[in-house]
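step: validate -> pass
step: tokenize input -> pass
step: predict -> running
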Amino acid sequence: MNRIIGYCGIVCSDCPVLIATQRNDDAERRRVAELFTRQYGREYKPEDINCDGCISDSPRIFHYCNVCEIRKCGMDKMVKNCGFCKEYPCKKLSKLFAEYSKAKETLDAIRRQRGIV
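step: predict -> pass
step: emit ->
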């Protein structure tokens, strides 16, 4: 599977939801639904575990990604991901980066590779 990076810098291709979707693995969907229900305090069913990645045009987007303000902003600005945005880093990303520093590292690396920094 190719590496898919979401707008926010999270590596979608490492996400168990996307993996279960691409493999069409119902046992994995059940496992992920149970895990996410415990982890996030919201009930997930196996049929909720479907996503083609937040940068996809597909209607199969995981619930959280479908309501993500970072994703909406990236789509509105038509950037490949937030690393390409002129306003990077912004307030929308600060909370995510506080909880998930790997996303910032990923976007910073993209900016360095592209000579944006």
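step: describe -> The chain has a mean pLDDT of 94.
step: cleanup -> pass
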